[in-house]
Amino acid sequence: MAFAPTVLRRPLDVAHRMPPRRRLVEIVLLLAGAGVMLAPAGDLTFEARVAFVVFGAAIYCWVATAINDTWVALGGALIVGLTDPDGSDAFFSALGDPTIWLLLGAFVLAAAAQASGLARRLAVAVAVRAGSVRGLFAGLTGAITLTAFVIPSTSGRAALMIPVFLALAAAIDDKRIVRALALLFPTVILLSAIASLIGAGAHLVTAEVLEQTGNESFGYGRWLLLGAPFAIVSTFGSSWVIQRLFLCREERRRPLKIAAEDLRDEADPAAATGTGPLTQAERTVLAVIAILVTLWCTEALHGVDAALVAIVGALAVTAPRLGVIDFKSALQRVDFGILVFLAATLVLGRALIESGGADWLVGHAFGVVGGASPLILVAVVAIVSLLAHLVINSRTARSSVLVPIVVLLGASAGVNPALLAFVSTAAAGFCLTLPVSAKPVLLFSGLERPTFAPADLMRLSRVLLPAHLVVLLLFAFTVWPALGLSTADPSPPDADPNTPSNRR
């Protein structure tokens, strides 16, 4: 997840060659941090001051240094825990948060799906049945989107799809079509994640922040209802744009005849080819996924927490003699770095909210925007979130920074905080401008086989970014209100927006 520009990745023995501009920025930040801590006491508590300084330092490290994102988040959470009397409990309890266990269970389920070959079979089956380049793009868009409901990491989905892409590229052997395909895979992987609560760690951050502030709670089913339509529009719309930008009409209509044997994974010759009956392992994983999704979507009826359901599913697919992968192997495929990063950012977000720092920031720094119309406010949140990937590489970090602020901004402006949070999270999933904007983009741009150039990404982003802004506004004021996510703040007019009991 971590990345810093290449110019900042230098050996320690030349660290003294720090650019003067960067050194000046660090001096200004140090003075600003000292000013925050030493300023006369006012309505900003000591805990809020610490939260501001730690958050500011974390953002700087995420943006401008090569320090690992997880290390930065964990260090910040530790400082918050040491300076807050109740911080140690919050620090350790974050690792036991249900969102962490939900993500852990999802990772184990994803390992089973990968081991069974089910996800690969889906993509290969689509490619074999595609009769044209246009049909291939449409089928792959749908197949890749479906993987968001099982695999909780965009990087993991990209790694899973790279062998499929390489096999397709070899079978098609056309530079222009291969370039368009190379753009399609990471684009759909990133934009389809919004369809599922477990599609990205940022979604769990958003759900947790909304619950902490007493706003509408987003379970798996609720997120699916709101996110799936947006994912379908954004992914298929982006697929259409990619074809029009990088392929001519004749290329889009070009007939394709791809045999299943052409798409075998050279590294795993026994991998599914998309033909023939489902294996026992595939049927097991498919049944478990169907049961889990059903239970997640009906949580309001049976009352079993989504995290517990995920753990039950993880145990089922790793059960001795019955599962498709042994438990130890499944755990080896879990990205514990993401789990620790998520837990640490939850601690930072809670510190900013519970200390009153986020509310203070909204009241003092965003007063002008807060008085604007709902359309202007939603547009500003969407634009900032769409552009945030240019400075903060991590999707979870972006939401950890933005969501606590926009939630309280919405409460103070009379706009539904849950709507603003969902708009911000959906917009933050757009990270296609630069190869370094997201891991999936970086993975596909760095393959040995030529794929796409940075100029191709810029060309694509110039069209998709404003298009996504328009789609976000349309959904925020038409589709999502029709699905129950109103634009107006549902809390009573005289309610204190920071009192959870008044916002439930």
Radius of gyration: 23 Å
What is the helix/strand order? HHHHHHHHHHHHHHHHHHHHHHHH
Low-confidence stretches: 1-16, 492-504
Shape: globular
Q: Structural class of the secondary elements?
A: mainly alpha
- Report the mean per-residue pLDDT as an integer: 80
Polypeptide structure, described:
There is one protein chain. This protein is an all-alpha fold and 504 residues long. It has a domain at 98-332. Helices cover 67% and strands 0% of the residues. It has helices at 20-38, 46-64, 69-83, 87-93, 98-116, 118-129, 133-146, 154-172, 175-192, 201-212, 220-246, 249-252, 280-297, 299-302, 306-317, 327-332, 336-354, 357-365, 367-370, 374-387, 395-413, 417-428, 439-445, 454-482. The chain starts with 19 loop residues before the first helix and ends in a 22-residue tail after the last helix. The model is unreliable at 1-16 and 492-504 (pLDDT under 50).
Describe the secondary-structure layout.
Elements: H1 20-38, H2 46-64, H3 69-83, H4 87-93, H5 98-116, H6 118-129, H7 133-146, H8 154-172, H9 175-192, H10 201-212, H11 220-246, H12 249-252, H13 280-297, H14 299-302, H15 306-317, H16 327-332, H17 336-354, H18 357-365, H19 367-370, H20 374-387, H21 395-413, H22 417-428, H23 439-445, H24 454-482
Helix pairs in contact: 1-2, 2-3, 2-17, 3-4, 3-17, 5-13, 5-15, 6-7, 6-8, 7-9, 7-11, 8-9, 8-23, 9-11, 9-23, 10-17, 10-21, 10-22, 11-24, 13-15, 17-21, 18-21, 20-21, 20-22, 20-24, 21-22, 22-24
